[in-house]
């Protein structure tokens, strides 16, 4: 396999106005501007192979979008080197655009008032896709999803799920070597999320497209990514496969319980009762993360049983979401 993206010691800094507080401060800002430097990406290096699906993860403000903007040529690095299929992206933006496709969450890049097929035809002209390739792509799309009914529908009349699907198909239409997907399943229901993930997986397999995925949805990560890269405060925390990561947290299990009463409120109570444990709640379960090197699950369950009426329980391996949360909190030694 060949390396399609090479990133070496990349730093990106922004100069931002240091705003002073209050009216007096604002007036002072008008006359003497005081700037500070924000380092959004701090010495990042990684190589990505053709055909990989990489989850690029990190909390809000970690520097993910800034890195992707540098890979797409929108921003120039302050220092360091980025090569995308042999090109320096910000110096060869047009050439780079031919090689990449992008989908940014809920912001559609399709022509709002036009039927999807007209957007596809415009993209065919823009990217100069030969007829045979375009027809081949539509055939492939038809075999993966039922696009027939979508093709003649105006984008503004589509549901969010249909629009996301159409956006993904549009991003892959010119057969780019790399597709950047930013929160591709945000706001979708469970079955649409599954459909979108299956589509991305199939397109990656069929076309050997490299996919860089930024998401806060760990379902996306579990379904799609062999490799994850985690950054926080601009610095790289982790770059390896997800199983390897779970190995670090092998002694952790998630104890899931159902109790009587409002689960979120009960979880708050449990959080106070066992402050050393990570406790979370969704609509169905309260989850308590237990490090079995330190505590026995049965002891934790016994403790909770004293103050809560437990109706059901499950024991699970640590989830991807919890692994990543722990890395944000503690890092990987
Ligand atoms: N154009 C800009 N000017 C000044 N600061 C910026 C600019 N773009 C980003 N930053 C800062 O750089 C840091 C990283 O931002 P970035 O948008 O890359 O994070 P992110 O990981 O994509 O976050 P999110 O998940 O919220 O989208 C933040 O502190 C942000 O405020």
UniProtKB/TrEMBL annotation:
Keywords: ATP-binding, Nucleotide-binding, Transport. This is Sugar ABC transporter ATP-binding protein. PANTHER family: ABC TRANSPORTER ATP-BINDING PROTEIN, ABC-TRANSPORT PROTEIN, ATP-BINDING COMPONENT. The lineage of its organism: Bacteria, Bacillati, Bacillota, Clostridia, Eubacteriales. Residues 25-258 form the ABC transporter domain. SUPFAM superfamilies: P-loop containing nucleoside triphosphate hydrolases (SSF52540). SMART domains: AAA. Transmembrane segments: none annotated. One of its GO terms (molecular function) is ATP hydrolysis activity.
């Amino acid at each position: 396999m060949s390396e399609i993206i090479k990133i070496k010691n990349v730093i990106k800094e922004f100069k931002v106005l240091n705003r002073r507080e209050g009216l007096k401060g604002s007036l002072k800002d008008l006359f003497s501007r005081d700037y500070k430097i924000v380092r959004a990406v701090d010495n990042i290096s990684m190589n990505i192979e053709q055909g990989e699906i990489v989850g690029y993860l990190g909390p809000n403000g970690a520097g993910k979008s800034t890195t992707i903007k540098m890979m797409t040529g929108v921003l120039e690095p302050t220092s360091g080197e980025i090569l995308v299929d042999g090109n320096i992206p910000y110096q060869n933006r047009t050439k780079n655009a031919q090689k990449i496709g992008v989908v940014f969450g809920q912001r559609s890049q399709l022509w709002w008032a036009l039927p999807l097929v007209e957007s596809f035809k415009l993209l065919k002209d823009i990217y100069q896709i030969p007829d045979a390739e375009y027809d081949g792509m539509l055939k492939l799309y038809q075999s993966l999803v039922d696009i027939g009914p979508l093709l003649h529908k105006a984008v503004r009349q589509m549901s969010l799920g249909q629009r996301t699907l159409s956006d993904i198909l549009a991003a892959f239409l010119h057969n780019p070597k790399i597709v950047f997907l930013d929160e591709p399943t945000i706001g979708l229901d469970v079955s649409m999320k599954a459909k979108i993930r299956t589509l991305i997986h199939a397109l990656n397999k069929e076309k050997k497209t490299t996919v860089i995925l930024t998401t806060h949805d760990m379902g996306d990560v579990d379904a799609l990514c062999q490799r994850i890269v985690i950054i926080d405060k601009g610095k790289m925390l982790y770059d390896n496969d997800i199983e390897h990561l779970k190995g670090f947290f092998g002694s952790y299990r998630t104890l899931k319980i159902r109790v009587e009463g409002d689960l979120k409120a009960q979880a708050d109570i449990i959080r106070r009762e066992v402050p050393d444990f990570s406790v979370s709640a969704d609509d169905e379960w309260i989850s308590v993360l237990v490090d079995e090197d330190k505590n026995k699950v049965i002891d934790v369950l016994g403790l909770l049983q004293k103050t809560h009426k437990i109706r059901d329980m499950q024991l699970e391996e640590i989830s991807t979401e919890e692994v990543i949360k722990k890395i944000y909190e503690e890092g990987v030694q």
